[in-house]
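Self-study notes.
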Amino acid sequence: MIIRSKAPLRLGLAGGGTDVSPFADLYGGAILNATINLFAFATIEPMDNGKIIFNVVDRGECIELDSAERLEPDGTLDLLKGTYNRIVGDFTKRPLSFKLSTYVEAPPGSGLGSSSTLVVAVIGAFREWLSLPMGEYDIAHLAYEIERVDLAMAGGRQDQYAATFGGFNFLEFYADDKVIVNPLRLRKSHLNEMEYSMLIYNTSTSRLSHKIIEMQRSNVLGNKEKSIDAMKKLKEQAVMMKEAILTGRLNDIGRILDFGWKFKKEIADGISNDLIDRIYEAALAAGAGGGKISGAGGGGHMFFYCPGNSKYKVKSALAGFGGEFRDFQFTVQGLTTWKI
């Protein structure tokens, strides 16, 4: 028997950063995101030899361990070890023996939520294998706890829920890790137009998101008014984006992205840099209505909304910056699992 799963990566369209504690706990957060046809895959092959094999295909890493009730996180494939530890600790109460192979279609630091999406895919594979009693909210919350609590990795809460639920979602974040997922129903014509008008651009640079997120957290804890006010504006942006998309005011998307980008840069240092600023200004000069960095910032992917046929001029304008455009489609399906 072989067990497989896949979960989609996401674009954070508006409100990014407001899902991070302590801001979300103190003021409430709101994000609008959408999943795209880039995926994290997980495959489990059960074994009975008392061994565990972690095979990370996209990174060329493979380790073999003795099966145990708990695997010590030591900096090597900790996301996989941490997920295994919770599956055993919360459900099976006994060691498991298997080979787990994973593949993610975007590298760490891409700004597309790859790490959290991988955790969701792995949890999904275990759920399918062991028939675990978990719904969508359960899976997303467990993925969040594995990363943010068990492994103490800095970050927010949107990625886990986007990967699990899929599609366009307006997410609300509150204290005590409460999250409400509001799926958006879009007309097919609006979805097609957004796909046609949006460009995803890989800057070919990576970033250490945890440093930016830790600075963001510090600014909130230190009651830095400029940073807190900027995050409140990003909450407003999420509502603006939701209303524009649902009512078909698609030409407002670029303006709303530009509105949010100005405040996004005020959350913490390092979200933008000289290269990102030059790429952004070149895109706007070529006709883009607005855009932003995807994820915490500092590198990875950017995306732009280009009304009319301006995307072709934008592509030409960014040709000399050393990055590459990535073809994509929006997806409506979240975590998917199956057995062979």
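Second protein, same conventions, sequence then structure:
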Amino acid sequence: MNNLLTDFYELTMGQAYFKSKVSNNNAVFDIFFRKCPDGGSFAIANGMADILEYLKNWTLTKEDIDYLKSLNQFTPDFLDEIENIKFTGDMWAVEDGTVVFPNEPVVTIKAPLLEAQLVETALLNMFNHSSLITTKASRIVRAAKGRPVMEFGTRRAQGENAAVQGAREAIIAGCKGTACTVAGKNYGIKVLGTMAHSFVQYFDTEYEAFKQYALAFPDDCSLLVDTYNTLKSGIPNAIRVHNEVLKPMGKSLKGIRIDSGDLAYLSKQAKAMLYNAGIKDAKIIISNALDEKVIESLLDQGAPIDSFGVGENLITAKSDPVFGGVYKLVAIEKEHKLIPKIKISDNPEKTTNPAFKKIFRFYDENGMFITDEIALFNETTPMGKHEFVHPEMPFRKKEITNFTVKDLKVKMIENGKQIYTVPTIANTAKHVQDELKTLWEEAQRLENPHKYYISLSKKLTALKNEMLFGNKEKDNQTNHHDSFQTNLTKER
């Protein structure tokens, strides 16, 4: 990723910070999102590995500075300041593949203000795209109810990076393979594919096309049967190739793919025709503008489908293509103390949660997810008995016992150095599945899922209320209370 991938106002603000002599003061920013895609009850966070790689190598080169100089917007002393700049701060984040909820501080950056500001755009770009595609692909995989899903979206993705990285995110979400060959090369993931309609069209007859493919791939022969007429031509010719070409070689037809028409009806008829011909193990593969709702409908209709190829609706997250993660200032450092900051909006959902924070995740005695609580960074882990306050109805409270707690965020960068080992793609994919096993089935429904309520700790609630409704004579942007300040000298 280009190190100058930043919105221009990050640079103009940067010069203003520099001129104000505050650019080296530490600041704390959170990345979070406000709404789950497609009406879901949760999202799957992803992109941390890319963010780590970016921050580790981030700098502005002489060529970058020469371009900025040509704009005649920046002073020479500021350009000197940012040439060869590096990230020297800290980063905390949930691990890739973690189930997360709206308004949780999924990533926290603490760094000199200028550094933290200039990396904002790139970090959001990576987090938003990876989390969006992983969340969408997970919905599709869950709809398939254990049947393999293959990612087929390369040609419909918005550019090369979206195609290659989207294939990786699909595998992390549970897809079994991708048609994107370079993704297989780059990430060591499984690549899949057989033929297109053009292959069938090239030969004089559909039978001849199927025959030539069977001769080329006798051990893995799957045929695309809908080029002309699925039931009158495609399936009969596939059966004929099985009997006349593969069977004499001691081989058998591995599968057929249907890419158009009434997929439920055609798959049922195709299955019956293959079965009656004695081909009982051939898989039925379905493609053609599939998404989680189409897949769920097909299976509800009893379609005997063995696997799905999903393209454009996965790789573009077509139904809800914007993840909406944001990057907000939540604290600044003065005299080795963190001063909480809050953004107040006429839209209540845009009012931020102030201060340097952590996320406590609560599980019951069976390891099932109860809820998350967003807390101040210096709060101790809850033990014994704990009371939650409903985030929308504070008069409703819930007390729990017999629970375990996990501090969800991990410190990944310290003083500019990566201290976290990035898991393999396979391990991240396993983490996704392990996370899903902790959620109620009702929360994983595609339509009208159960929604978890994520609480603020009592201390964070008190701080937020003080900043919102406390001393009216003070500017809410700088109002704070000593009891919520963190001594940075100890942490550093």
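Instructor comment on the second fold: The first helix runs from residue 8 to 19.
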